[in-house]
Amino acid sequence: MRLFVRVEYANIQSFDASGQHSRIAGEVIEFDPNTFLSAKQVEQTDRLRKLALCAALALEDTGSLESYARPPGR
């Protein structure tokens, strides 16, 4: 599985930032959670958790999470 997303640093577009001190931020755009999650998960999960779940799945696919596994007996 490959996780492709684009991060863009520009004026905030995902919400009205007119009342904020800064209006420039990095936003994840062109992210489609349907590629990785079931329809039920997509419907019941907020955007932040979708990003976290997909990132964890991508790490799991690379084997990067194995270094964080608990030793036997713990």
Description:
This protein is an alpha+beta fold. It has one domain. 30% of the residues lie in helices and 16% in strands. A two-stranded antiparallel ribbon has the order 1-2. It is elongated.
Layout of SSEs?
Blueprint lengths: L5 E6 L12 E6 L9 H6 L2 H16 L12
Antiparallel strand pairs: 1-2
Number of strands: 2
User: What radius of gyration results from the CA coordinates?
Assistant: 16 Å
Number of DSSP helical runs: 2
Q: What share of residues is helical?
A: 25-40%
Strand content: 15-25%
Largest sheet: 2 strands, antiparallel
Shape: elongated
Overall residue-averaged pLDDT value: 79
Distance between the termini: 30 Å
**Number of structural domains:** 1
Provide the descriptors you would attach to this structure in a database record.
74 residues, single chain, 2 strands, elongated, 30% helix, 16% strand, alpha+beta
Structure summary:
The chain is α+β, with helices and mostly antiparallel strands.
